[in-house]
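During the second half of the funding period, the structural biology subgroup turned its attention to how the target accommodates small molecules. The most pressing case was iron/sulfur cluster, which had performed well in the primary screen but for which no bound structure existed. We therefore specified the complex as follows and requested a full 3D prediction, including the ligand pose.
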Amino acid sequence: MKAFEYATALSPSSARDLIADNGAYIAGGNDLLGRLKEYLDAPARLVNIKAIPGLDTIQYGDDCWTIGSLVTIATLEKDEKIRSALPGLHQAAAEIASPQIRNVATVGGNLAQHSRCWYYRQRDVQCLKKNGDLCYARNSDNRYHSLFSGNDCISPVVSSLGATFAALDATAVVLSGGQELRWSMAEFYADAWKMHLAHNSLKPGDLILRVEIPLSRPRSAYLQASDKHVFDWALVSCAAAADYVDGKLVSPRVALGSISPVPHQMDKANQFLEGKPLDSTTVAHAADLLLANARPLEHNAYKVPMAHALICRTLLKLKG
Ligand SMILES: Cc1cc2nc3c(=O)[nH]c(=O)nc-3n(C[C@H](O)[C@H](O)[C@H](O)COP(=O)(O)OP(=O)(O)OC[C@H]3O[C@@H](n4cnc5c(N)ncnc54)[C@H](O)[C@@H]3O)c2cc1C
Ligand code: SF4
């Protein structure tokens, strides 16, 4: 890795000042340090944000819970209130990587982690996402890639929390240019849909402060399928959230990870599920709607039936 300066920020505004034009924020470092070692990034300065007060706490409001961007995945996994009120979030956190990684990995770093495409992660491959002129995955080994994309890069978003927050209709609060922006998960990843260079919508210097989760969906669930049982990213992940009143779904939301550059959601599917009972015919039709426009590549067609099964199983888990 290239030499860099190191500075510790004590407030969000000092973090912005310290990062200057060519710095990078470091939280748990699980993603960033790998990128530095592989020469994918060469920031002039690393700005440690872990000493910024207040970003490592969870606030339990009456209608909305606020999770600071420095809260670790292990905290999400172990928090008893989250386990009971937001079981889908607990399940997503518990599936991430390994206990050691979860102990240091943060919510902000998880949302902002870069592509896991193996061509992107190889230092000598200069693909589209690294300002090259070719997507190596498109006509090559694309078994881990997207079923949907809005641009020529087919690398999917792999953040399990991104999909789960999308299903929970959470808002990311981002400090950008001195202002607090409030983004849905669709907005947080919108640039990755539109532009092959982007991993998310953050601009240089933008700092994720917190994620706000409304408590209007007391039922939630998360499932993923991976090559390995632990210590692996998902081949496909699925999160669902809703209320379930008198045997009928209220405000249902389904979001999938690892099949699109954004958490994959379809309004049509959510609208179809509204007011429906949870049975096998209903969930199968919702899965059909979610996957109707999937465009499998040579090696990832297996993701379509896998996603279909995960959607059905995740939705049925909302029954309790
Ligand atoms: C073997 C393995 C398996 C894994 N499996 C999964 C999985 O199944 N699902 C999953 O979701 N993840 C998985 N991960 C990824 C892991 O969860 C992320 O790497 C980790 O959460 C990143 O958090 P961090 O705090 O270490 O981020 P860092 O490495 O510190 O930062 C990551 C990126 O986010 C930026 N950043 C960090 N915090 C902020 C902030 N507050 N504002 C703006 N930018 C910020 C950094 O500049 C950097 O670009 C896996 C990782 C490994 C090694
Ligand atoms: S999928 Fe994206 S990251 Fe992977 S090789 Fe193609 S352009 Fe690069």
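Two results from this model are relevant to the next phase. Residues 303-317 form the longest helix (15 residues). The two ends are 49 Å apart (CA to CA).
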